[in-house]
From TrEMBL, chain B:
This is Amino acid ABC transporter permease. The chain crosses the membrane at residues 20-39, 60-77, 89-108, 120-139, 183-203. GO terms for cellular component: ATP-binding cassette (ABC) transporter complex. It comes from Umezawaea endophytica. GO terms for biological process: amino acid transport. The lineage of its organism: Bacteria, Bacillati, Actinomycetota, Actinomycetes, Pseudonocardiales. Belongs to the binding-protein-dependent transport system permease family. HisMQ subfamily. PANTHER family: AMINO-ACID ABC TRANSPORTER PERMEASE PROTEIN YHDX-RELATED, MEMBRANE COMPONENT OF AMINO ACID ABC TRANSPORTER.
Amino acid sequence: MTAPNPAPPMIKMAGVDKFFGPLHVLKNVNLEVPKGQVVVVLGPSGSGKSTLCRTINRLEPINSGTIEVDGQPLPAEGKELARLRADVGMVFQSFNLFAHKSIVDNVLLAPTKVRKVPSNEALEHATELLERVGIANQAEKFPAQLSGGQQQRAAIARALAMRPKVMLFDEPTSALDPEMVQEVLDVMTTLAKEGMTMLVVTHEMGFARKAADRVIFMADGEIVEDSTPTEFFSAPKSNRAKDFLGKILTH
Amino acid sequence: MSVLTNFSSLFLSAFGTTLKLFAFSAVGSLILGTFLAMLRVSPVPVFRAAATTYVGMLRNTPLTLVFFFFTFAYPLLKILKLDPDPTAIVALTLYTSAFVCEVVRSGINTVPVGQAEASRALGLTFSQMLASVVLPQALRAVVPPLVSTMIALLKNTTVAAGFSVQDAGSISYSLSEAGADTLVGLGWVAFFFVLLVIPLTLLQRSLEKRWSVAR
Ligand SMILES: Nc1ncnc2c1ncn2[C@@H]1O[C@H](COP(=O)(O)OP(=O)(O)OP(=O)(O)O)[C@@H](O)[C@H]1O
Ligand SMILES: [Mg+2]
């Protein structure tokens, strides 16, 4: 008998399998992310990184295994799942800002509709967040009127408006022009320093070295390596990781 | 001109009735049609099947038959007695809602799936997602076909004349009973329909213009 752990991991995946038809996309994935940790997920295209990310808030249901967020198993689709998702922020590669709403309304929608935060309080928080990501002066514009970097920062503000316990990022800078990558990474780095629990799928090695506590390397739906950034970049254990790093670093 | 001046009160009351049928059926069919479209994309299979069946039936039935049903078959059910005008509104609403449903559904299909995913990831429920994110964008995308459906509804109101409603479609009967020139009278009827369509077209243009900036 062990004493019950007072603080459950923020994310816990145990024996997770996921299929797309005959395709085995996640193979017996086990992963625990403690509160406050910043995990970078690396791996070649098609290795299941996005799928891993999307199973954590059940945008993709899994075929077997269990997933818990902050000690709470993911419920089936419905009100309870919606409540849990409200605590899990997600940032997409393609931003997915609500096209018909201004930037500030994008940030306000979920807090007022889901959390029923009074509108003046929500507006105050939204303004603060937009200032924090550096686009307070764009608040009244529509998403299509912003640059990619600004849109992605707005999307981060929108996720933070729900005061999430954990943030998931699926290649947040991959759709951006090179000169806009850094402004988004800066916001993420600050967030990491402030103690946010983060799971970040990215190809930005600089971010992984600087902001990550832990690097997970995936290949063919499996977690192949799980180590610190220093360990991973200086002495990868598996051949696949060596191969991957060779390709990435020569770019 | 004499037809119009001699029968001005007939024209006024008939077009008044036409406008009443149109206004009630337009509001009713937009609401019911949008609701049906929500059912058609619902995750609940029974809802989807029910809405699909409804749309399939109403869209494939001639409007006259829908009127026949509500005028002759429905009273036999002895649920609630309806006068000719409300009967016409019910028939027009149910019939038009099937078309509105299909237009709105095609609009929903134009909304990128990322919009729904972002909503779900933020904790919006299915109905919140539809109401706040998907439907507003879907409706913006289908203004022209939706207005066309409403123009068709306006013209379809004349079918009611065959079922004891004194609307614009009945003007020619009244004129011929009174021995007036029905051909000239019909010309005027057509002219007033053209006038009634103009505000709908203007509405379409202003909505398209207003919403084009937002994308
Ligand atoms: N909705 C889907 N239906 C069928 N197959 C899918 C679906 N989504 C992903 N896949 C497949 O699952 C595998 C893993 O996809 P995933 O998107 O998780 O990879 P990834 O590591 O994120 O790749 P990338 O770096 O290209 O984004 C791929 O082979 C992909 O083709
Ligand atoms: Mg991916």
